[in-house]
Every structure is written in structure tokens, then in C-alpha cells.
């Protein structure tokens, strides 16, 4: 026979039963003023306090906790609002750009100026014969080489943040005097993998796996739709200019 069963047979109430009764009858003390005044609880200060004082103390603690959570939520909302405005400005500039050169400038200026980061890089995948061209933050790279250098970083659909290997960072951010220490990377996907969008900081640990990536994904989703058609048009225009140059030389 358990102690609880023995108490029940002896007519004693257990703590759980008393607690359950009070939960089911929260107005029990309304007509029990004398009993309420006689109940005391230990306080952090060492003195005994009444049940009412204890309730007031708990309500104040709950209020302070809720107030702190509200302040944090408001701060997060303001931060997200600023990020949204910066992202919107960047994408509007990219949409209004007339060519790859303007797009590259818009991306580079926004990431370093508006977002306060040290570097931005957009790698667009192409065939080996078209790879090697760079324009500011835009780099045309061989897809096979990119897969060899970046490997599993290209497999997911979400942003990857943290400390990348030296080879990976050098591939993402070529020709830099000051090396990038921390990276956030997002594959560009639209009807397949078309490239990579990455932002970097020279501060160690600036990006980590716990950080949110909503706005990085938002920018990447838009770039993945805007850039490939412009790259294709850029290649056609370059070929046309080359043909005209050859014809002019022959003439």
C-alpha cells in the first residue's frame, strides 16, 4: 500500500488533491477572509508574507517578464522593418539597372553601404567558354568548377551561414586584399541552380547558423529571376559587338 493510498483511506487529502480543488474553485477564498489572512508564505527577504502579497509579487514578476518580451519583439520588428526597406531599395535598383554593369554596382553599393557588410558576390553559372568574366560583385563562373569548389554548399534551398574554408571564401570573393572571415551564402534557384549569392564580413563569427535568413532568401529569390535573362542578353550583345568589330576590321 502506497503512502498516498494510506492517506486516502485515513481520510487525509494529498497536496495534489488540494491543488486540484483550488484550481477547480479559484473563488474559494472569497468568503474565507480569516483563513486568507492566516496563510503566510516565506519571502526572499526572510520574513513571512500573506498569500495576497505573494500573488501581487508574482503578478509583478509576470508583468515585468511580459514587458521585457514586448520590448524585445518591438526591437525585432523595427530591425526587420529596416532590413525590408534596405532589401526593397536594393531590388528596385537592380530592376531599374540597364545592364550587368549597373546591376553589379547596385548590389555592391547596397550591401557595403546600406547593409554595412564588407563584400557581396553573385556567381552566375555558365559554360566554360563564357566563364571568367567579372563585373564588380558579379562573376561568371564555370558551373562544374563551382560544384567542385563549393560542393555541398550548393545542395540546399536555405541560406548557409558561418565559417567557410579558405578555398571556398577565395572562390566566392576573389581578388580581395582583406580576406573575408565570415560568410552567408544562398544558392540561386529558378528552374534549376543558376548561381550563388553570398555576403561576407571581415569580422570572425559575424554570421552563424542561428541567424535568420528571411531577407537573404528574399533577395536571392528575386536575383535568381532577374539576373539570368540579363546575362543571356549581355552575352548576345557582346557577340554582336565582336562581330561588328571583325567586319569593320575586314572592311
Tell me what the structure shows.
This protein is α+β, with helices and mostly antiparallel strands. The protein folds into two domains: 81 residues, no CATH class; 146 residues, GAF domain (Beta-Lactamase, 2-Layer Sandwich). 54% of the residues lie in helices and 16% in strands. A six-stranded mixed β-sheet has the order 4-5-3-8-7-6. The protein has a two-stranded antiparallel sheet with strand order 1-2. Strand 1 and strand 2 form a beta hairpin. The radius of gyration is 32 Å and the shape is elongated. The termini are far apart. The C terminus is likely disordered.
The CATH architecture of the largest domain would be 2-Layer Sandwich
The fold-level CATH name of the largest domain is Beta-Lactamase
* Beta-strand fraction estimate: 15-25%
Helicity level: 40-55%
Can you tell me the residue ranges where pLDDT is under 50 for at least 5 consecutive residues? 237-251
- Tell me, what's the shape? elongated
Total strands: the figure is 8
Mind telling me the CATH class of the largest domain?
A: Alpha Beta
Give the distance, in angstroms, between the N- and C-terminal Cα atoms: 111 Å
Instruction: Tell me, rounded to a whole number, the average pLDDT.
Output: 77
What is the fourth-level CATH superfamily of the largest domain? GAF domain
Question: Rg, please?
Answer: 32 Å
Amino acid at each position: 500500500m502506497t503512502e498516498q493510498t494510506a492517506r486516502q483511506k485515513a481520510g487525509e487529502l494529498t497536496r495534489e488533491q488540494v491543488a486540484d480543488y483550488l484550481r477547480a474553485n479559484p473563488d474559494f477564498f472569497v468568503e474565507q477572509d480569516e483563513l486568507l489572512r492566516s496563510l503566510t508564505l516565506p519571502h526572499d527577504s526572510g520574513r513571512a508574507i500573506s498569500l495576497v502579497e505573494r500573488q501581487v509579487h508574482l503578478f509583478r514578476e509576470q508583468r515585468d517578464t511580459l514587458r521585457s518580451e514586448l520590448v524585445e519583439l518591438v526591437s525585432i520588428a523595427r530591425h526587420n522593418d529596416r532590413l525590408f526597406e534596405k532589401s526593397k531599395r536594393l531590388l528596385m535598383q537592380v530592376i531599374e539597372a540597364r545592364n550587368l554593369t549597373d546591376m553589379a554596382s547596385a548590389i555592391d553599393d547596397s550591401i557595403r553601404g546600406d547593409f554595412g557588410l564588407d563584400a557581396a558576390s553573385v556567381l552566375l553559372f555558365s559554360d566554360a567558354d563564357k566563364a571568367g568574366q567579372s563585373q564588380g560583385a558579379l562573376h561568371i563562373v564555370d558551373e562544374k568548377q563551382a560544384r567542385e569548389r563549393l560542393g555541398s554548399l550548393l545542395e540546399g534551398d536555405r541560406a548557409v551561414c558561418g565559417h567557410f574554408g579558405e578555398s571556398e571564401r577565395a572562390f566566392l570573393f576573389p581578388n580581395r586584399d582583406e580576406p573575408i572571415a565570415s560568410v552567408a551564402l544562398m544558392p540561386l534557384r529558378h528552374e534549376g541552380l543558376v548561381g550563388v549569392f553570398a555576403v561576407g564580413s571581415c569580422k570572425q563569427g559575424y554570421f552563424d547558423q542561428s541567424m535568420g535568413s528571411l531577407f537573404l532568401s528574399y533577395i536571392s529569390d528575386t536575383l535568381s529571376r532577374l539576373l539570368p535573362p540579363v546575362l543571356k542578353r549581355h552575352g548576345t550583345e557582346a557577340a554582336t559587338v565582336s562581330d561588328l568589330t571583325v567586319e569593320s576590321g575586314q572592311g
